[in-house]
Amino acid sequence: MPKSPQFPIRIFYDGSCSVCAREINHYLQREHGGKLLGVDISVHDFDPESYRIPLDAFMHELHVIDQKGETYKGVEAFWAIWQAFPARTIYGLLGTLITLPVVNPIARLAYKGFAAIRPFLPKRHNCDSGTCKIGKH
User: Fold this and answer.
1) What is the pTM of this model?
2) How far apart are the C-alpha atoms of 65 and 67, rounded to whole Å?
3) Closest CA to 40 of 67, 58, 54
4) What tens-digit pLDDT sequence spans the chain (137 residues)?
5) Which residue among 42, 57, 60, 108 is buried most deeply as judged by most CB within 10 Å?
């Protein structure tokens, strides 16, 4: 795993994906001391150019960018998110488990499988009022 992220971190997620939005919303609603910021890449005004990452890359796998500009993708993105929580929590435990030599390759394979089916998952409906957007910063 890469070095620990510098908080706060920005989580770039596809808010139109019901599973993705639910998962990231779950983390954003937990007590994390302001360490996590959500960025919905499915909104019309999201500008991937400002991050020098193509939208297709953002859509392909979860991205997290920390305060120093370090980018974490896929399994590493989840690892970075879990670093925002105390070690004694389930997320802290997951952050430790994901680094184990036996667990990490399995997690990478599982994530690759999820990324392959993600485009076929149910989509969320966009709302014009803006009240359904979560953690947008």
Assistant:
1) 0.87
2) 7
3) 58
4) 778 999 999 999 999 999 999 999 999 999 999 999 999 999 999 999 999 999 999 999 999 999 999 999 999 999 999 999 999 999 999 999 999 999 999 999 999 999 999 988 888 765 554 545 555 44
5) 42
Strands (E), 29-77: 36-40, 63-65, 71-73
Closest CA to 21 of 93, 95, 125: 125
- Please, are residues 45 and 96 in contact by the beta-carbon 8 Å criterion? no
Both tokens of 64, joined, read 């997290």
Residue ranges covered by each domain of the chain = 9-120
Per the CB < 8 A criterion, the answer to whether 35 and 9 are in contact is yes
State the maximum Cα–Cα separation within the chain, in Å, rounded to a whole number.
Answer: 46
Residue with tokens 């599982």: 110
